[in-house]
What does this fold into?
Amino acid sequence: MTYEDFLRFNQISVVFEPLPYSIKGFCRKKGEWIVIVLNARCDLAEQRRALDHELAHALNGHLDMYDYEECESAVAFQSGQRKKKG
Ligand SMILES: [Zn+2]
It folds into this structure.
């Protein structure tokens, strides 16, 4: 399965938009699909990190949850990263 297939299988699409520099990326629902928006102004390394982070939210069903802190700590725990916003 290619990466594109993986995303399609999970009903995830990735788009790039010029966002303020403080935002690396975020995800939102669009019908049955999850759209991951990455900051077009960030460099490739930052975009990859942001994509990993947002994918963790998407694949864990966090878009249907409303406890921001709980979502962030779940993602931070999984990725072994320090807790950060986004
Ligand atoms: Zn996050």
Summary: The pocket of zinc ion is lined by residues 53, 57, 72, 75, 86 (CB under 6 Å).
